[in-house]
Fold this protein.
Amino acid sequence: MDFVSVLSIFVMACFVGYYVVWSVTPALHTPLMAVTNAISSVIIVGALVASAEAIGATAKYLGLLAVVLASINIFGGFAVTERMLAMYKKKERK
């Protein structure tokens, strides 16, 4: 595939992702974050495999960057999910 095709697919995916995420109701936010965390874990595995097979140093550094960014996304997603689930817990009475 040429660069223009790949770029157009990326731009369309950005628009679809934007409209899907911002139109989610609060009740569905927690399951959506769980799925996002699962996708990010697949990205980490793919980045590790790709950087292990990489020949050049640039590809290895880009793989490292992908692992770092996906890790931040996973940990942030778990923190947001935990806060969302805490909103639904019953508060203790004294």
In short: The two ends are 64 Å apart (CA to CA).
